[in-house]
Amino acid sequence: MTENKNGEILKDITINDVAKALNLSKTTVSRAISGKGRVSEATRNLVLSYAKEHNYMPNAIARSLAHSKTFNIGVVIPSDADAAETPFFQRVLMGICETAASRDYDVLVAASSEHDISSLKRMVINHKVDGVILTRSLKHDSPVEFLKQMNVPFVVIGETVDKNAVQVDNDMTAACSEMTSILIRMGIKSIALIVGNLEYIVNRRRYDGFMRGFLECDRIADQSIIFQNAGSMPMVDSAVSKILKKNVDCIITGDDLICGRVLTKLREKNISVPGEIKVASFYNSFMLENNNPPITSINIDVHALGGTAATTLIKLISGGSVQRKIIMNHEILLKKSTV
Amino acid sequence: MTENKNGEILKDITINDVAKALNLSKTTVSRAISGKGRVSEATRNLVLSYAKEHNYMPNAIARSLAHSKTFNIGVVIPSDADAAETPFFQRVLMGICETAASRDYDVLVAASSEHDISSLKRMVINHKVDGVILTRSLKHDSPVEFLKQMNVPFVVIGETVDKNAVQVDNDMTAACSEMTSILIRMGIKSIALIVGNLEYIVNRRRYDGFMRGFLECDRIADQSIIFQNAGSMPMVDSAVSKILKKNVDCIITGDDLICGRVLTKLREKNISVPGEIKVASFYNSFMLENNNPPITSINIDVHALGGTAATTLIKLISGGSVQRKIIMNHEILLKKSTV
DNA sequence: GTGAAAGCGCTAACAG
DNA sequence: CTGTTAGCGCTTTCAC
What we know:
Two copies of one chain form a homodimer.
Chain A: E1 2-3, E2 9-10, H1 15-22, H2 26-34, H3 41-53, H4 60-67, E3 72-78, H5 81-85, H6 88-102, E4 106-112, H7 118-125, E5 131-134, H8 142-150, E6 154-157, E7 166-170, H9 172-185, E8 191-194, H10 201-216, E9 226-227, H11 233-245, E10 250-253, H12 256-268, E11 278-281, H13 286-289, E12 296-300, H14 302-317, E13 325-328, E14 330-333
Parallel strand pairs in A: 3-4, 3-5, 5-6, 6-7, 7-13, 8-9, 8-10, 10-11, 11-12
Antiparallel strand pairs in A: 1-2, 12-14
The first copy, chain A, binds a DNA duplex through residues 14-16, 24-28, 30-31, 34, 36-40, 43, 58-59, 61-68.
């Protein structure tokens, strides 16, 4: 509904109104508007100009019903507070939104935790979306199972256990291995690792990459300074304490959140970076870039990640064939924190 | 669509299928499912059990069309990169999603910049949402104007220029005034201020609150150490440099992003907080809480802000009457950075 | 090139 | 308490 200049409320004008006003059939108007089917140049112009003048806007709901298609895509983002602390998900979402908008799709978000995917379920069961993007892949991935069972097209950002799922990802293992071996070759002797929740596949890959980096340099990682599953700040703190008791040259963290915490801890103890200990992170962020000193890290284009996921999903929805696994680039940013 | 145990693809079952199978009319089935209208206990159970057994799920699109209602709400979040750096918008979004889900509404997001609100327009014009939540209020608020013109129910988070718009907000001016006067009364003499983009109303209120804090203490603020419209990191840096040339006891920043930058700058110059200069922020964040020392700041429950906005909008959509302006609480967190 | 009619799946009078 | 009927607004055969 909208108002005219007198402030009266006007009901939305429908295809029927246009047809009657122009003495045409709904069919013709529909064809003129959608551009599908043959309509004479004259009538098309007539319809189009009338539509513009009277501000006719096709009702997407009705179109959806007729098409059995919603032109919506669902995006699942983690609802936990920790996830809100890293800009990753918001950036992915922005990337998805931008691409979706350019294809005339809208984006529905479902906030889900590891244990509660009810809003994803509602959205899918109610037929509110044509497909779904998962922004985090889990070891026990109930969203993936649900979507497969419901036979809904979906794309996972990150690596999935399910080998048939379409995924858009970085080669995390390669990136982490690359960074680790660069650091080793720079002459750093003893490197500690702190990675987060192992339920998130990405953290497993970070560990794998770390180990592979050592392997490639014909070195063996010291298991006593590797801390996996550090899913909370106290756990990070405790890892740091233990690390500082050993004679460690460098700490690599799984992500920016952990890294931030490590840096705070080091500052509290007046330990200088990189003077007394070097620090690097397997995931970059604004904060790490602006730290003093800036932190060596792996950089990925998260916005593009979202965009590619959206493009892929839309192709999938439209029945196109897509690559089962799309790998995006990464880059290693060597900064002062490891010199 | 879903698959049965043999992997065959089953078409979705509709209300018609249920009706035929049970030898009832669509109406009766509809009533049994929706719970509206009188149906005998017996037939209701019959329908319900058949529905469950055959996994019948009503099609939300069809219901939308019949109701002329989508059961979706739109949320506009800023698409600019800076906004992605603060968890504010993601938290608000989570709050909205949670509340919306509990009322069986879904959430569509429109990423919009100050200059491009095309995705908001699409979403509204296509009738994809019943109402909209704006998560940031602007001085020149094209979203507000558009929504008023389209006669779509909407709620603004933050203070709006438009006096008729429904808004959910904190009393920013009061909060900032409160914090400022507390600091003054603690004996701090010279206080500098750095606030961001004045296009955002919230930054204007922060300035107002700062000034009011001085007034209430019968003091006059020193305009030469007030920096407004510091919308980028270089501008913050330059403000800090100028401040450090004057004899300033304390820097108050408009938000956590600016504060983070100020802290980095101070660290670079080896200026200790609070020893040589005190620091406080008009907006709290995880990072500031975990800083060493923790930063004095204003804390607001952003998740609840989103939730309240959603509740209010849904009430509005349902034709209920709502308060035109809802003020949420804030609290002042006094931390070591200002002792 | 244009139109009539059926239908997408569900809801809501209006009758019985 | 249940069924009939007519839409919601748009798309899409199938004729002319």
